[in-house]
């Protein structure tokens, strides 16, 4: 079980409303730690770089758009190499573990961690933990060298294996301590980072000189604070293949409908960006934007309208969309996987069948529907060039922080700059599409689909004025979605960003 001990967040306040949400450091709980010159000073690849070392006071703002009289806002410590390090190269024994689902780029991150530790800092002892968190105490480790990982970035998946659950903090830290590991690199999503935070707290409670650092991994792009997660660009690019196939199938037959289900348990970013990139999608359904099937402005009406106009259509649906419509019983909604994620019903199969049933019963129009589910094909492929570069930056940045003695952090990109973010900021919420924001408005403009909004469904910023009176009956029928959209646009001083 995890320790009840919890360290306090490190918050530094400055003039002009400046706030630094700092990350822990080994020196916070281990006094009189010796420091050493950074070996990068003698590395021929880096010694020629001017101002290569990051100043200790360098920080990155979470928000770059501010008002002239407003506060400077929250900042994070800038990532990068420091003049002094807290580990001698020969003393470092690092461990790398991958947890959760697969994602393009996992092997690239592993490769770059191993190679950068060796080439930049002269670290020769790197272990791979086999099979996720439970591998710390249930399986053997794998010795990793630059030679053994040389070509792994060309393959999908993870050479270390992965799993969900299996997190026993005490056993994990016992294993870390017994094996003499002093740097732990943990690659995974929000659940994995919560586990990493618990490991850090136990390490700190025991007073161990062990760095615990995370690299955020989620193909859904649902981790907060950071600009995006690695593998996301690859997923969007690969999703285009499925969308293109659906488009070819649908336009090649009378009244053809192509339905593509994409990943997105709680956040619809892959579906949204794939739709915007494709330009062949007529309707995109995501978890953040409720929709309905029957009646004016509903999905069935829109499908019939599109088929009459152009003879075919393509629908993209994220896996977490419409779960309130799909779930038939409370019992099915409460089932969870080993990571504690709610098990979802297959919305793609469900919506495909509902469309078929509707047109069979309520329309003289004969439709031809093709359903495509590329989920596991997308997440199992190697990362593309863009993600490979990003994986390299993430891996090198997290190593610089570990060698400099920082711990209890996740390395991530914020406003285009590599930063160190405390675990609690990564795990406190999820990054979701805001359907009253400009990006969703761009999608609606691109697809010309209805908003499917009921007044009770509009997501609003707490700081903005309320648009709708939601005191009415929750079961009232949704009015025409396009009329709602027009009403929103013409409300004076409205708070919806369009």
From TrEMBL:
Annotated GO MF terms: 6-phosphofructokinase activity; ATP binding; metal ion binding
Residues noted as binding ATP in the record, renumbered to the chain: 101, 164-165, 189-192
Any matching Pfam family: PFK
EC numbers, comma separated: 2.7.1.11
Residues under site feature: Important for substrate specificity: 191
Taxonomic superkingdom: Eukaryota
Requisite cofactors: Mg(2+)
Positions with a binding annotation for Mg(2+): 190
Top enzyme class: transferase
Catalytic reaction(s) noted: beta-D-fructose 6-phosphate + ATP = beta-D-fructose 1,6-bisphosphate + ADP + H(+)
Regulation affecting activity: Allosterically activated by AMP.
Keywords carried by this UniProt record: Allosteric enzyme, ATP-binding, Cytoplasm, Glycolysis, Kinase, Magnesium, Metal-binding, Nucleotide-binding, Transferase
Involved pathway(s): Carbohydrate degradation; glycolysis; D-glyceraldehyde 3-phosphate and glycerone phosphate from D-glucose: step 3/4
Role played: Catalyzes the phosphorylation of D-fructose 6-phosphate to fructose 1,6-bisphosphate by ATP, the first committing step of glycolysis.
UniProt cross-references to NCBIfam families, sorted A to Z: PRK06830.1
Protein name: ATP-dependent 6-phosphofructokinase
Organism in which the protein naturally occurs: Acacia crassicarpa (northern wattle)
Gene name per UniProt: PFK
